[in-house]
Specification:
Order of helices and strands: HH
Largest sheet: none
Number of helices: 2
Shape: elongated
Length: 51
């Protein structure tokens, strides 16, 4: 079964990453901070899902 929560998180991360790449945003911008937060949430979700 598809994990829609995880897919949504990964989709948001990819959108933000693409925006940051196109605009050339620095590491301390809110978008880049959100990507880092999403990375943590995704990793925690995967760890919980896989054991």
């Amino acid at each position: 079964m598809a994990d829609l929560y995880l897919k949504n998180l990964e989709s948001e991360r990819l959108q933000l990453w693409a925006t940051c790449r196109l605009k050339g945003l620095a590491r301390d911008t809110p978008e880049r901070q959100r990507i880092a937060a999403l990375d943590e949430v995704i990793a925690a979700h995967k760890a919980k899902a896989w054991g």
